[in-house]
Structure formats: structure tokens, C-alpha cells
Amino acid sequence: MFIGAQVSLYPMTSDFVDVITTGLDALTPYKGDLRIETDDMSTLMVGAPEPLFDAIRDLFAASAKRPEHVTMHVTLSRGCPGEPDDPSCRCETLERAQDQTLTERQQLAAQAVKNAPELGVVIDVQFSLYVMGAGQHMNEIYGCIDFLKDSGTFHKSKNFCTRLRGDAGAVFETLRQGFLRFGPAEGHVTIDLTASANSPSLG
Amino acid sequence: MFIGAQVSLYPMTSDFVDVITTGLDALTPYKGDLRIETDDMSTLMVGAPEPLFDAIRDLFAASAKRPEHVTMHVTLSRGCPGEPDDPSCRCETLERAQDQTLTERQQLAAQAVKNAPELGVVIDVQFSLYVMGAGQHMNEIYGCIDFLKDSGTFHKSKNFCTRLRGDAGAVFETLRQGFLRFGPAEGHVTIDLTASANSPSLG
Questions:
Q1: Which tens digit of pLDDT belongs to each residue from A61-120?
Q2: Which of B60, B89, B159 is best to mutate for the A interface (most A CBs within 10 A)?
Q3: Rounded distance, CA A84 to CA B171, Å?
């Protein structure tokens, strides 16, 4: 299994380099657990979902606590057949999911969101979950949408994606649960995610 | 068939509202052919791939011609089983693709990129193509990657995505061809796309 993300932070300010540097500093505690490589378009993070989602959450939360409007785009992937197996990506939640029904996975996901830490910053997220290579992929998608609607972070459905809103702790736990507990445990699942904070046009 | 995109423009400047307004002005010629709805996180565009990709291209090209660093995120989708059929999205390229081999589709895609208009602005793109609900989805992905590598806009492969670089005309034609000619013609295909221009950290 290979699990990781391409992450880009977009501060809507002329001091964008400074905000990006602040965000990247929040990744320091995770450098032992994740492979992190930055180029001119995005930062690659590879590793298990626990440090991976925590790192992305802390990167965005640190930036969102500043006053400027900031957004982030993340492409998350697990189980891509084109990527090599990586022992650092091993995930017990995924291994156990193979023997769990959709209902059990929905309950475990809901509990995890309830237990999420509070980070003290409210964010907006818009995301799409993609389950590849499975004939019944829409069953898993609809099962995930049911979980999302009861998660406490659900904001609204839109064409092609779902909006979440809430504390960064609960929102990123919702995303991690969606990523891990829906779609085949050994399958190829991706998330296309946009986060936003301090938007002047917030509806 | 339902085809469309959620589009967000991110100018890295404190005058971001002005740049976004400039970009949205470039959509005016397409308002008859596309359904366009903007909220606080993204702009929904629904319609056939010809005006759809042209509109997204012109939106970004207009912004990229300004001096500021600007990025754009686009979530593209065709054939999502959860969306209603929409006659305005009808696409001859997709209808013909049902009877074409992978090799034929690769040749037609390459020719379309050669015929693309030149817009006079060089951009960077990073994207992932997802083919859902098909057991052989990786064959179509690898077929698309072969097309990309010969397209003239290929820059490099990265984990989870592919980088393109070139004139906005050729780059967006490459994306449209990838979106339409790979994966089942009646299937659910999506693209997770990030574009960038005027980056100070361009490698």
C-alpha cells in the first residue's frame, strides 16, 4: 500500500511566501513519520494516515489562524496500482476494514469524528471522494455521504463535491474517516480537496 | 451525460478580488453555452466540453497575463451516476469514442493538441485523471499517459499526478483530450487539476 498527498497552500496576500513558510513550519513534528518533498507547485507527503492527515490539518490550521484569506488544495491517494508498496504507509484501520460491514464502518467513522481534538479555528472544505476500479463504487460513495451528513461537519452538497464546515480538528477527522473507511480496503481511493479560511465572500 | 467543473481562482496578492473579477470577465462569451454559478468557494460551470474547457482556459489565461502569481483549482467530471442527464452537455467526441480503439483515440488526441490555438501565455499544470467503475481502468490511464508524454506539453511525472507546461492553448487542449478520449465513453471520469502562472519559485 502507498498512501500520500500532494499539498499546495495558497494565501491571498502579497506576503504569500511568509504565510507558506509559517504553514510549512507546522510540519516539523511530522518529519520523522512522513516523507516530505516540496517543489514549485506542491508538497509531497507520504506515510500512514494518522500522521498524514494530522500534518495536513496542522499546516492549514496554522495558516488559517493568521488574518489573511488562505486556501489549500490537496490530492490524496491510497492504493494506487502505479505506486510501489511502502511499509511506512501501513494502516490498521484499513486492514480491519476488510472484515467490517458498511454500517460498522459508518459507526466507527462517526465515533472518530466525535473524538477529534478541537483546534480552535473554523474552516470550510469542499471535496470529492473517488473510488476506482470497483463495479459497485457508488454504493460506497452513498455510504460515505450518509456518514458525512451525520458527522456534524456537513455543510451542503454541491455538483461533483461536498462542503464541510467546522473546527479544523473535526473537519480533518471527517476527511480521514471518509478516505479510510469507504471504498475497498485494498482498492485505489483518492480525494480532491479544497480548504478555505478567512474568505471575505463567505456565505 | 452530465459534464461540468467546479473552478476556483487563487491570486497570491492582496488585490485578489480584482484579479478574480478580471478572470470572471473572461467568461462572458461563454455565458450562453454554459450554466455558470459562483458561490464563496468555487464557480460551477456545466456544459459541453468545447465551451467548458475554452472558458476555463480563458479564465486562467486572462489572469495569468497579469504580473501576479496566480493559481487555479478545477474539479472536472463527466458521466457521474449521481448527476442528472443534461442535453446541453452532449459531446460528439465522446459519442464517437465508443467505436474507436485506444490507438485511434491517442492519434486523434495528439492531432487536436497540434491544432490548438496559441494564447501567448505559458502556464504550469499538475493534474490527475480518474476513471471510475471499470475493472481495467489502469489500461486507460497508461494509454492516456503515453498520449501525454508525446503531447509536447508533458513536463514530468510526480507521485499521484502529471505535470504539464506550455502555452495555455496547447495545455488546455491536452487536458480536454485526456478527459474525453480515455476511460469508457459512457463512464464516470474526473480530473483534479491545479494550474499555476508567474510563480516566484518556478523550477
A1: 999 999 999 999 999 999 988 888 999 999 999 999 989 999 999 999 999 999 999 999
A2: B159
A3: 29
To the nearest 10°, the Cα dihedral for A194, B181, B174, B129? 30
Architecture (CATH level 2) of domain B3-193:
2-Layer Sandwich (3.30)
Q: Measure in Å the smallest separation between the Cα of B89 and chain A Cα atoms.
A: 14
pTM summary value: 0.95
- Contacting residues of B for A69, CB less than 8 Å apart: 16
Chain B partners within 8 Å of A165 (Cβ): none
Kindly report the nearest CA distance between residue A107 and chain B, in angstroms. Answer: 24
- Does 3.40.50.970 match the CATH number of domain A3-197? no
Cβ distance A202 to B40 less than 8 Å, yes or no, reads yes
In chain A, the largest separation of any two C-alpha atoms, in whole Å, equals: 50
Q: How far is CA B87 from CA A14, B3, B102, in A?
A: 43, 10, 26
Domain map of chain A by residue range?
A: 3-197
